[in-house]
Amino acid sequence: MTKILLVNIPAGPYPTDYPPVGISRVIEGVDPKLNCDFYFYDLDYFRPSFEEIKSKIQSYGPDIIGISATLTPGYSYVKKLSLFIKNNFPNVIQVLGGETTVISNIILLKTKIDFCVTGESEPTFSNLISKLQKDNFNIKDRETYKNIRGLVFLLDNIPYFTGYAEETNIIRQVNYELMAKFTDLNHYMQNVNGQFYRIRINKHEMDGFFNLFYKHNLNKKMATVFASKGCVGGCTYCHRFFKGYKAIEPDKMINYMENLTRKYDIGMIQFAEENFGSNTKATSKIINYLGERKINWAASAVRSDTVNENKIREWKAAGCVNINFGTESCSKKILNIMEKRITVEQNVNAIKLCRKYDIFVITGLMLGMPGENEKTVRETIDALATTLPDNINIPYEVCTPWLQAIPGTPVYEYARRIGFIENSLDGEERYIESLNDKNSSEISQYLNFTDYEKEEIAYWPYYVFLELIASYIKKHGIWKIIKYKKANRFIYGLIYSMLPRIIRKTLLKYFSVISYFGFINLFKLIFYKNIFKKKKKYFNNIDQSIKKIYKDMPITVREDEKYTYILREGRITGR
Ligand code: SF4
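That is the input. Now the predicted structure with iron/sulfur cluster docked in place:
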């Protein structure tokens, strides 16, 4: 029997409540004929020390350790863990899967990972296990691994990519029963009125949100499921391995949800895919089932062009309580640069429809695309100010993170070409390590794609938010706000909205410089950086998709990436 220890990696300061779907899919997807025994050590949830990890490896005695790393900012942990395993267990084969394999060349040259499994890992991983079993876990003749599609490994010390494996179109759900053997299921299947929404919605607005539920669901559990995979979009800041979009057959989905909801007393379903609802017919069948069962549901990512009034009315009637839109921007120019393939009107209408039917919306923005400037930020504020809820009891949430240039995206490639990310193995590693544990809301991780100094734009996230709160206060009137809104943001917003627009903006701007960069930097900004001088226009002149721009900017393909650059250039975004 082959023993395989699977681990995820800790991401961020707190364990994620997103269930370990990649791990579940690998355990279920590996060919049973290979006679493998799996153990999943949930490093993200348990956060063990390296000594505890060592004890676990010693007691389990794996032939292979499979590391699942879904986010590039986790690279530093992967590196540390891999070196630690190599030092203590030199004969164990280390395999990495997940989105981070987009930087397989860096992984293989800078860590002790033996193989990267790209894309959907199950078929490639099965083929790799089979080959390793035949070779008695002794990787000698590396040439013979070239036949396994989807693999990256060192060949004559250069990372070698065997080409993309065929996509399977299978959409595996999380097997909660299986996960319960290894980890705390209560963490991934929380109470409807528990932590999940309490960390996403202001505590003073929670009651308004829970009023949207069927009362009988409030003390039940919520479960995360996937009704589709892939996306119909090709945004220039987004990386995905799966090409195209595929919805699960509704009958299969309904069958799965029926068993799941009955077994675990589920009162709410979270659809966690990146692009919910693009297949209208399949979605309709699935949500009508939920409606008949009086189970509430939410979709964590919906494209604005997916919805129209009929759909939103139908979704509401079927128990939908929350939709999150990746609105990103309401500037036509920025949407073009992003290649969002969504108009400002579609973004605005999608939110307005949810307001009309009392569905709670988290509007996800993204600041700082190349070409972003004060005008485009203002355009976003003005457009979103027309989408404020009439119902004062529904929570109001807007997220304003910065663009994060992640490998495998046109934005990352553009940053390499203009020298923001040094085009060397060490330079790229330095940049990726600089993202370690950085949240996209931190300006420190942002590569400044604007013509302003970084200090000058630090206030943008607060500016967007406070301007929208000021509009909200104007819409509902001060007395209603005082009566119904107890969250601090409305108190700050009230003070802010009393000042004339130009004064509040200026105060916020310089206050943000001091709070992020300190007094000294404020003086440097004013006296040395000539911020009052007319700026040269470089990024401001950008007015087309960043993908089109970077394609005309040649770059030398380095020796270490000569077989893997195709991974870096991305697959989905059409290059
Ligand atoms: S960011 Fe764009 S391409 Fe990526 S999942 Fe969202 S809509 Fe699709």
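The chain is about 40% helix and 15% strand.
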